[in-house]
Amino acid sequence: MIISKTEFLYRAQMDQETLQVWISEEWIAPQGQEAEPEFSEADLARAGLIRNLQQDMGVNTEGIGVILNLVDQIHSLRWALSAKLKAGDAQDE
Length: 93
Prior knowledge:
The protein is mainly alpha-helical and 93 residues long. 70% of the residues lie in helices and 4% in strands. A two-stranded antiparallel sheet has the order 1-2.
């Protein structure tokens, strides 16, 4: 599902300035053109995670970048493992 910038700002409960900072930090990576960026549900969930890290846990800017990088690596490893297991299952059949 594609989420417009206006809807994303509303659902994430954030302002445009904060969104621009998060995009420049590469914490959120919308698709589409810069004038009309398109966001996903994953972007919205990521925004919630960033907000929790900042507000609830007091993580600083550098820490957020490190945490998001590690989360991305975990997701990539899970995807690769899943693909490997599916390939092994198909080969066994």
